Amino acid sequence: MLTPATRGRRGSTAPWTSAAVVVAALVVVPVALLTASVLSPSTEVWAQQWRTRLPGQLVDTAVLLAGSVLGAVVLGAGLAWLVSAYDFPGRRWLSWMLVLPLAMPGYILGFLTVATFGRTGSVQDQWRAWFGRDAWFPDFESTMGAIVTFSLVLYPYVFLLARAALRDQAAGAYQAARVLGAGPAEAARRVVLPMVRPAIAAGGAIVAMETLTDFATVQYFGVDTVSVGVFRIWRGTYDRDAAGELATLVLAFALLAIGFERVARGRARFAQSGGAGAGFDRRRLRGMRAAAATAACGLVVSVAFAAPVAQLAWWAIDEQTGPRGTPLTDEYTSYLRHSAQLVAICVVVCVAVAVLVANAQRFGSPRLTRWSSRAIAVGYAVPGPVVGIGVLLFTVGLDSLLERIGLDLPGVLATGSMVVLVYAYVVRFLGPGFGSVESGMTQVPDEVTASARVLGAGPLRTMWRVHLPLARSSLLTAAVLVAVDALKELPIVLLLRPFGFDTLPVWVYNLASESRYRQAALPALSIVAVAVVPVVLLSRRLDRRPT
Amino acid sequence: MFTRRISRLIAATAAVAVAALSASCSDDDSDALHVYSGRHYGIEKAFEQFTKDTGIKVVFLTGNDGELRERIAAEGEETKADAYITVDAGNLAAAAAQGLFQPIDSSVLAQAIPAELSDPDGLWYGLTVRVRTIVYNTDLLAAEDVPATYEELAEPTWKGRVCMRNSTSVYQQSLVASLIAAHGEEEALRIVKGWAGNAEIFATDELILDALADGLCEVGVTNHYYLARRYDENPNFPVGLVWANQDDRGAHVNVSGGGVTKHSRHPEEAQRFLEWLATDGQKVLIGDNHELPANPAIEPDQVLVDRFGVDFLADPLDAATIGSLNADAVRLMDEAGYE
To answer: What is d(CA B179, CA B194) in angstroms, rounded to the nearest whole number?
Structure first.
């Protein structure tokens, strides 16, 4: 903790505190607008839901959440350990290819899984041809199928964070433990695991949020979660209030997951001293063990990324060259351009705001900034449409309020303006961006901040010249997490975009909503292709030895 | 070194951002007709053709029906939308109930579109017709053994032999709404419980057709045009269609349609647009989607005539009633334990 003396040396705490509080308010208000109706609950709807679907939805949500987080953590942390502590043929390539599934949207892998392994999929067709119509086959259109899909597309979050923690923090301690006589297993368990625990917990929390707020992927598997319930009520009975109330249940699950993360993270704080870690002295695997390691990594990459991409490419080529194929038009480039523009703006704004709030924790009032920093994750904990409609209601209300007091901002706050669209994206995706920047900042010891301040640097200068360079790889991670999520986002852009501003996911949606799945292969493939760029950049950058 | 690189990066991205903002903020289309559309496929072609025919420029925004409705409602008097086009009577009725439409007094529309496919107050008009009816595997069932009514599918003899759509689908909701209208809540609940016990549930109509073709089930319920599309790809696709309930109330029909928004800035052009879609624009609106034209003066496409026959009895239940019963249908399926 900084002492009051260093805190107040130059510049006061007030601007930092108020910046953090304003950001938190701007994130919380739109979400609160929709969920506040829980204060005057529609008891009839609740009673009816409780009697019929809600108990099942709660169970499905809990099982799906636990299974997906467990699957992603085991895959992510296990593979991170494998590529960090051991050497085997193809390790260098595989260790960055293992991040690629991050570029695969869950709703696309979900559809492909059902189309391939589902009741009417090609695999079961063949199976029945061999073993008869009633031959047993695992039921992929189930909670289990959804868990496998989520684990495969979401494990890279855990993998990325765990690998960085292993390299930057745990490697030195592991070597020390070995030198002091601990066996590899004991050193891993007693030294490495506690040090990477916060990273694994943070990755697990992201997986939990993505799973909870999803309502598109789960529907392919017939899983009836609380998020699905929100949409059935809203779109089926047109009862927005009741849907908003049900959305608070999603939020409650999210709070549970966050509480769990805090416990799992423990009180551990590992400030790094003396530059970035040197990484592990990898043990070389030989023979069968080496082959098994290579095969395990290769299998995950193929199942979660290579095979789905191949299937999409096959369909896309088939559609484009077939008799009903449509030639690519200028529209295609405009979808691409819009997606890229939107993602670029969102990344810059999200990371800038995250840096601001993370630094406010150092320079501002500790208590207020702590609450603010917790509150800004709320947008990530509710489904996209809840954020979209909340932002819509909030900006329309604000606009008319400003007009009434004579402050007319023509077009800025109107729906369908880029400002409102970007605002909604920031509300939704500030959570993961901030989480990453915050964990980067924990690697900057308080003493370093204090030294900079004692030497006469103001807060801004300290942030710019000291904090940012030290936390730079976490800024990059934040940028990529936001970019990937923003690129895949659909409900917000569908609701708030300006006329003519169609993105790649909108294109997929337009075709998929008319069940023209094969024609949707090309735009789906394009999303993956664009998302791969930041993912590969990040992965290679983290691979490079820090200088 | 680091800060300089970051500064450059930020400057570059900011430049892109400003360019994007300014490019998308300028709305020089204020004279054009603005359409919000929950119908996506092939709609661009209809807009192009309309502009060619009338000289009225159209800009449009596709999206999800529910979200588009929320957007028009929130925008209120500020809305840019002149017309709202969507699929399913439930969506149209919801928009009318929210007061998003203005009544249209048009002799062209009154003449082109049958009364049961429109709102009684002229708030919206159906433009295309989709029939949700019974389909079957032609290898496993002879035509005379196919159940003739939706109600028969609830009988125990069909246990494990039926494929149906999940309750999240607005098509399924409308079908159940028509059961409520025909039989009352209690009997409708009994029928839907029967379905729940008999049927394998799928997330899309396309999957139901796949399941039928694979012989996973013998009979199912889908919208007619999904099957017609399959014939385009494979004329020997092993699934056939019967028009449901021909000996009583007729097959369940639903519409896609549209109306002029209450706060439209170009209400005359918007009305003209709907009139055009209901007459000259019918064929191009349907495109290769094999829906039936709502205007009886327009010939349905040849695949439908040849493969299904288009002289069938349609449930005369008006689309507005179907729409108003949608919420009840959702609750009823919850009660029945229908997935």
So the answer is: 13
C-alpha distance from A225 to closest chain B C-alpha (Å): 12
Q: Exposed, middle or buried, A540 (CB in 10 Å: 0-12/13-18/19+)?
A: exposed
Q: pTM score, two decimals?
A: 0.89
Which of B313, B172, B306 has its CA nearest to residue B250? B313
Residue corresponding to tokens 């099982």: A63
Q: Provide the number of CB pairs (under 8 Å) joining chain A to chain B.
A: 168
Q: Residue A10: pLDDT above 60?
A: no
How large is the angle between the packed helices A106-117 and A521-543, nearest 10 degrees? 120
- B185 to chain A, closest Cα gap in Å: 16
User: Could you read off the pLDDT of B282-326 as tens digits, one per residue?
Assistant: 999 999 899 999 999 999 999 999 999 999 999 999 888 998 999
Q: B-chain residues within 8 Å CB-CB of A414? A: 75, 78
Torsion of CA B76, B77, B83, B89, to 10 degrees: 30
The nearest alpha carbon in chain A to B204 belongs to A515
ipTM of the complex: 0.84
**Contact assessment for residue A391 and residue A463, using Cβ atoms and an 8 Å cutoff:** no
pLDDT at residue B12 tops 70: no
Shortest distance, CA A71 to any CA of chain B (angstroms)? 25
* Closest chain B CA to residue A141: B202
CA-to-CA dists, residue A428 to A212, B145, B281, B292, B297, angstroms: 14, 54, 41, 41, 50
Q: Is B203 within 8 Å of A120 when comparing Cβ atoms?
A: no
